[in-house]
Amino acid sequence: MDKLNAFRIIAAQASRGELIFPTNVDASLRLQQALEDPDCHLEAAAKLVLIEPLVSARAVAIANSVAYNRSGAEISSVRAAVMRLGFGTLHSLVSAVMVRQLTAKVSDPVLKVKAAHLWEHTAHVAALSQVLAKRLTRIDPETAMFAGIVHEVGGFYLLSRAEEFPGLLDGDSEDWAEYGEKVIGRGVLKKLDVPATVAAAVESLWTGVGAQAPKTLGDILFLANQLSPVGSPLHPDIDVPIAQALSPLEIVIDGVSLSSILEDSAEEIKSLTAALIF
Questions:
Q1: φ, ψ dihedrals at 90, nearest 5°
Q2: 239 Cβ partners below 8 Å, 6+ apart?
Q3: How far is C-alpha 112 from the chain's CA centre?
Q4: Is the pTM of this model over 0.70?
Q5: Taking the CA atoms of the chain, what radius of gyration do you get in angstroms?
Q6: Sorting pLDDT into bands at 50, 70 and 90, what band is 241?
Q7: How many Cα atoms sit within 13 Å of 139 on the Cβ side?
Q8: CA 92 from chain center: how many Å?
Q9: Could you tell me how far CA 152 lies from the centroid of its own chain?
């Protein structure tokens, strides 16, 4: 089977909602749904998180990152982490674990490297989105981080299915960009119940249009993508880090250079990125 037909098969299944998720993703989906229950309070959330070891470990790591630990007082309990993070960040965290788990069963060495590379890119974009939203806009930083976490979810799903179609990711990325990304991406975003505003921001990336002086969530994602020091392995020809394409010194937002904003926030971005990489 040629690549184009393979993309069309996966895309057609995604458009019909016929998505194949690993069992651990289904468990994370159930956790996310439980956390979204309006009757779920933080104490109950902490107990739910304790059941999932990976979520627990990431909750403590993110709670101790510079972005969330202004006092410098480290914590070691899941309950304290949940209390510090709140529901918004917890929701993003469960989504991060869920997206990462999509490729947990991949055994092909080349695909495993691509999945790790794509997650590293995702972690950088999520951390940058959180900080850029906080520093440059009135957009909720937790929503921006969540958007960064899910912006390549279609790519992770593709990697999770690639072993079924040998040669699917050989060569350039044009077939993925033209025939797979939009349809598969929309299907997975819908399956994961990603809010419409976030899904729209992710879709805006597929057009390759965004403002360097961000005003919308889509602009934040666009700029974070360009600033990420790690590009997406699924878009090697277009995801060129901004340092290679345009010096940050050339970008000025409200009279302040982007380079100075990034310098001031460097430790925060580095710490949050490190907490998200697992």
A1: -60, -40
A2: 121, 225, 228, 231, 232
A3: 17
A4: yes
A5: 18
A6: very low
A7: 26
A8: 9
A9: 6
